Amino acid sequence: MHFRHLGRSGLKISEITYGNWITHGSQVENDTATACVRAALDAGITSFDTADVYANTKAEEVLGAALAHERRESLEIFTKVYFPTGPMGPNDTGLSRKHIMESINGSLRRLDTDYVDLYQAHRYDYATPLEETMQAFADVVRAGKALYIGVSEWTAEQLRAGHALAKELGISLISSQPQYSMVWRVIEDEVVPTSSELGISQIVWSPVAQGVLTGKYLPGQAAPDGSRAADTKGGAKMIEGLLGREDLLRRVQDLRPVAQELDLTMAQLAVAWVLQNDNVAAALIGASRPEQVAENVAAAGIRIPGELMKRIDEILADSVVRDPRQTEKSSPTERLC
After folding, report:
1. Is 45 helix (H, G, I), strand (E, B) or coil?
2. In its keyword annotation, does this UniProt entry include NADP (predicted)?
3. pLDDT computed for residue 193 by the predictor
4. Which residues have C-beta within 8 Å of that of residue 307, sequence separation ≥ 6?
5. Would you tell me the crossing angle of helices 156-169 and 191-198 to the nearest 10 degrees?
6. What span, in angstroms and rounded, lies between the C-alpha atoms of 250 and 238?
7. Neighbours of 258 (CB within 10 A)
8. What distance in Å separates the CA atoms of residue 104 and residue 137, rounded to the nearest whole number?
9. From CA 127, how far away is CA 136, in angstroms rounded?
10. 259: which DSSP letter?
């Protein structure tokens, strides 16, 4: 395993970070989820990412139980706050002081830990003054309940404003968690340059484009049994937009010779690709089977030659989504409940 500094901080995290979005508490049974966490630990992963909204708080419980007997100081545990949880009352969502303070206590209880290494704003909250949000985060840090602060799917302007307030309050906003992959590059033009300037790193989710970049989904053919696209518990809904792009599926198949030249699987190529970006501290991987963890971890430390990076660009061509306005669209403009 290789490790990278998170932002301009002294904290190092494993460049392959294990995330339990969709899978834990919903898509897979708890014993399988625990086996996947054990596989991650065995592979040298020390960083684990979750969120209170995943499976409506159950994912945090599963992760906490799976890590219960590990030395806490040897782990980096991340969670997030924003989306509706619990009975979804009017204050069970967003980044108000009330919701943040109640949510961090709930997350710590479910994760069975005294603190998280990174506490992240899961989206930007247009319904709450940013000053209120950042003051609440500062108080969470000063209470010792979180060491660092991060965000997820914030625009460059939002990052700049949040970072300025954090600095004023004496806390460290060091990370951004956006979607990023060979086919989804909306952060490259604005978010990445701004983050580099401010000392913020990316922890990127969906580096394999929810499985599309593994090459398992073939144009005109049904989704394989056991795949996310065949999952009726939520996975299929998340991926249907990508599967409807037949031209993209054809272009992904053309990436196979590139992966073979590097002696990588298609999934390993996709994970290694996001790690070529110097502003990326870690690629988030998920798993429904322990062997998937071992496969993805093999992408750690891989360097893709420049000529092959160029060939990837040529193969994918105009199937890549680059519009930076897509980031802003990911945050609801109104409260969800």
Report:
1. coil
2. yes
3. 98
4. none
5. 20
6. 20
7. 18
8. 10
9. 15
10. H
Collapsed DSSP state (helix, strand, coil) of residue 225: coil
pLDDT in tens, 279-322: 999 999 988 889 999 999 999 999 999 999 999 999 999 999 99
Residues 6+ away with beta carbon under 8 Å from 222: none
How many whole angstroms separate alpha carbon 184 and alpha carbon 199?
Answer: 23
CA dihedral of 54, 62, 121, 91, whole degrees rounded to 10: 70
179 in Cβ contact with 212 (< 8 Å): no
CA dist 154 and 299 (Å) reads 27
Residues forming beta bridges with residue 45, ordered by sequence position: none
Where do we find the tokens 């699987």?
265
Neighbours of 131 (CB within 10 A): 12
Domains of the chain: 3-329 (3.20.20.100)
82 is catalytic: no
Give the active site residue among 54, 119, 148, 217: 54
Judge if pTM exceeds 0.85.
yes
Exposed e or buried b per residue across 283-301, where buried means at least 16 C-beta atoms within 10 angstroms of its C-beta: bbbbbbebebbebbbbbbe
